[in-house]
């Protein structure tokens, strides 16, 4: 339960998860700086970004005491190892992969695997997942999250990812979301730190 409390501590500071898909190592620190300044302290670098392990390493070295840094789009055990060795403490997957959850938990990482059905959710919970990422969230909308929330254990945080923006945060919250994964509504490849800062402020204000 201790690590699960850790997840809630981070989400309590700010329930937004920044998904920096496409970010480069030479720009990732400047982008993260404006996110942390806006109060966003959970940052994920998807592995389909340029040299993502280098970005995770840079973020962990600079923000590891102030933010929960990790990687997303993780699909293999060796990727879990690489992220952990770079200093990443957060595992996010696009799919329901109990084996990856167990591998990450063995390394003391916080896990936020993806799911879409109750069967997937319970398999991930049994594997020790700290939080669950409803993905692709826009395919079901808040009504799907509300229905899932009714059957899943109340202490397991659910976070919609996909199509989440400042305009629909309230609807997701009403449906039972404990946090929100924000990709293009927060960062698109090539965005300047100033552009990201403006989007971050808008999302934090919408909370």
From TrEMBL:
<dbReference type="Pfam" id="PF01081">
    <property type="entry name" value="Aldolase"/>
</dbReference>
<keyword id="KW-0456">Lyase</keyword>
<comment type="pathway">
    <text>Carbohydrate acid metabolism.</text>
</comment>
<dbReference type="InterPro" id="IPR013785">
    <property type="entry name" value="Aldolase_TIM"/>
</dbReference>
<dbReference type="InterPro" id="IPR000887">
    <property type="entry name" value="Aldlse_KDPG_KHG"/>
</dbReference>
<dbReference type="InterPro" id="IPR031338">
    <property type="entry name" value="KDPG/KHG_AS_2"/>
</dbReference>
<keyword id="KW-0119">Carbohydrate metabolism</keyword>
<comment type="similarity">
    <text>Belongs to the KHG/KDPG aldolase family.</text>
</comment>
<comment type="subunit">
    <text>Homotrimer.</text>
</comment>
<dbReference type="GO" id="GO:0016829">
    <property type="term" value="F:lyase activity"/>
</dbReference>
<protein>
    <submittedName>
        <fullName>KDPG and KHG aldolase</fullName>
    </submittedName>
</protein>
